[in-house]
Amino acid sequence: MTNDKIQMTNEKNKKFDLEDRTLRFAINVIYICNTINKDVINENLIHQLIRASGSIGANYREANDSISKKSFYHLIGICRREAKETRYWLQLLQYNNSGHKDRLDFLIDEAFQLAKIFASIGKKIFDNFKIIYSIVIDALTFVIKERSYT
């Protein structure tokens, strides 16, 4: 196997590792929600939490299949926001269920880590957009200057 194939395989595995990680995260959220007492408050928190935690992976998978970089960037931003929202609901659930503190701490940290990962991906894409934009502006400026001299 050549170095190019190894690199492509590693990049592909990273993409799917994050898909798997977001799926495992959502499954862990569902698991802990099944162990928590179902009172009126918890039911509302759990409903919001399961929707937000599942949305992270769903939007990431959609981003991986997006047609344009702009769409990918937009969906990665949604992933980051959903991870932050999930962390919020987990913190509220933890407040209301102190007996599950350790397990919820783990999930709160994982939601924070996922938000950081998606923020990093989004920043890299945004930086690339800025570079491309700068190149286009420089090229247009050059063309305009050239035309003004003729």
Fold and architecture overview:
90% of the residues lie in helices and 0% in strands. The protein is mostly helical and 150 residues long. The chain has one domain (3-118): Up-down Bundle (de novo design (two linked rop proteins)), CATH 1.20.1440.60. Helix 1 (3-35) runs antiparallel to helix 2. The N and C termini lie far apart (55 Å).
Please describe the biggest sheet, giving its number of strands, its sense, and whether it closes into a barrel: none
Helix content: over 70%
Any idea of the CATH topology? de novo design (two linked rop proteins)
> Number of DSSP helices?
4
Number of domains: 1
CATH class (first level) name? Mainly Alpha
Q: What integer is the average pLDDT?
A: 83
Q: State the total count of DSSP E strands.
A: 0
Strand content: under 5%
- Shape label: elongated
Q: What is the distance, rounded to the nearest whole angstrom, between the alpha carbons of the first and last residues?
A: 55 Å
CATH architecture: Up-down Bundle
Q: What is the assigned CATH homologous superfamily?
A: 23S rRNA-intervening sequence
* Helix and strand element order: HHHH
Based on secondary structure, the structural category is mainly alpha
Radius of gyration computed on alpha carbons: 21 Å
Low-confidence stretches: 1-9
